[in-house]
Amino acid sequence: MYTELFKLCGFEAEEIEKEKPRIDKAFKIVGIGIEDIERAEDRIKKYFDIELIGVRKVLGIWLKQLIDLALAREERKSLVYICFPPAARHGLAAMLTSEEVYCHSPEIVIDVVLGQIFGKIDPILEAAEEHGMPPGLAMCSLNQARLGAIVNGIAPIPNVTLTSGQFCDQSPKTDELLHEVYGIPNIFVDACIDSPWDEYPEISLRRVQYYAGELTRAREKLQDALGFEISEEARTEAIRGYAKLWWAMQQVWELNRNDPVPISQADLGLFYWMIACPERRALQDGPQIIGTLAREVKQRVDEGRGVIEKGAPRVAWMASHATDPSIPRMFEEVGLAIPVSVFGWISPIEMVKSKFTAPDERIAEAELRFGFYHSTSAAIFRFKEICKAWDVDGLLDAYSFSCRASSFYPLMIKRAMEQELGIPVLALECDLYDTRDYSTEALRTRVETFAEMLRAKKVAKE
User: Fold this and answer.
1) What is the pTM of this model?
2) pLDDT above 80 for 136
3) How far, in Å, CA of 323 to CA of 398, rounded?
4) What pLDDT, on the 0 to 100 scale, is given for residue 113?
5) What separation in angstroms does the CA of 433 have from each of 69, 219, 223, 287, 455?
């Protein structure tokens, strides 16, 4: 029934046969039937570049993550759900200390696998709307996926949630709801985005120490919840492994500077979400898969092949769509080359050697250097920085209107880009986690107009 699907996702016949009992159990829990499998096969062939082995393999990791999530209660002793954006290194360290720990963000698995691959995320979101997160109130659909997956029995009840509130204030409220309804203990990591407007890219000692203290306290509470101490060796390995994934992916981003752009953002998004919210499989298999992808993309560059014609207007965009690969494909169909994502590229500001020695202080400083967890002015700084560093013709700011953390400054970014850099910006109101209130076709007209304007500007410069 599902052999062809798994082959498309990089599985060998022997691996499919070996994993068959787990696949059957997980698909029953999730409610994956023959129609869903056929739809997934069609979507993979339509939206993803399965000529690339690296893309097939990362699709395979996502299918494995869905199976791991559905069977987590049966196969692991302790379940920890970390919200997105995650305290990723704490989760990885806990898993590296004990094989009995499952730690992941179920909402990311649900969005990518049931959204992008199977195209059936709506029932999950509707379940959340019927159980405490009603529609029409700008509820974050990523958090709805978290609640809906538990309500529908896809994500088993965890032992504890680790919730990072340094960027998003809706995630802590969601986990408070889970605590009240299901009695799930919560551990919160807090921070205050309150730096002076022009402080960034400097990072104040006060900010680092406060955030580091929150990370330390959260780790101590997580150890109490799990019943064991997270080893120093595991913490070091988690920090290095997390960094290794990000650095490995920069090879691919740099190859995307070429014209024509050799790989689609639809494919790169699969890697971004794997790295941004990593777990055991990503840590073990991710670097090798990224290495395979880099070699394949390099070959395309050498052959002069791309996903869009050479000379097309080049635009930066904010972040990869979590649930709908048709969105980035539509951008390419109207003639826009998207070489880089603001959230995926490592800035030179993030490459500064840390003056801190304590692990939690080093993590806190790294998170703040990312900019978007620092302040609104830092976010605007990062948008300007990437547009200059990548010499783009425009910025496509496709932002989530239901994301309280990022939906209030698009017009500020637009003004800064256009007035200070002379770079046109299309602020495109959508939702990276839910397409029920709009569609690819509904966005196409505005994007087509933007693309035509950028083409005219390029011609005028020549």
Assistant:
1) 0.97
2) no
3) 14
4) 98
5) 19, 29, 32, 26, 30
Q: List Cα–Cα distances, 321 to 160, 326, 425, in angstroms.
A: 28, 9, 18
**Among candidate residues 424, 406, 434, the one with its CA nearest the CA of residue 85:** 406
Q: Is 80 exceeded by the pLDDT of residue 126?
A: yes
Helix, coil or strand: residue 304: coil
DSSP 57-71: HHHHHHHHHHHHHHT
Instruction: Look up residue 82 and give its DSSP letter.
Output: E
- What are the C-alpha distances in Å from 20 to residues 90, 113, 173? 32, 18, 38
Contact 260, 304 (CB under 8 A): yes
Contact 117, 43 (CB under 8 A): yes
Cα gap 385→383, rounded to integer Å: 5
Residues 6+ apart with CB under 8 A from 409: 376, 379, 380
Supply the pLDDT for residue 408: 72
| Cα–Cα dist 137/140, whole Å | 9
What's the pLDDT tens digit per position in 225-281? 999 999 999 999 999 999 999 999 999 999 999 999 999 999 999 999 999 999 999
User: How far apart are alpha carbons 154 and 148 in whole angstroms?
Assistant: 9
Quick check: 329 and 336 in contact, CB under 8 A? no
Cα–Cα distance for residue pair 462/458, rounded to 1 Å: 7
Q: Which two tokens stand for residue 461?
A: 């410069």
Q: Which residues in 260-388 belong to E strands, given as ranges? A: 314-317, 337-341
pLDDT of 224 higher than 90: yes
Q: How far apart are CA 211 and CA 217, in angstroms?
A: 10
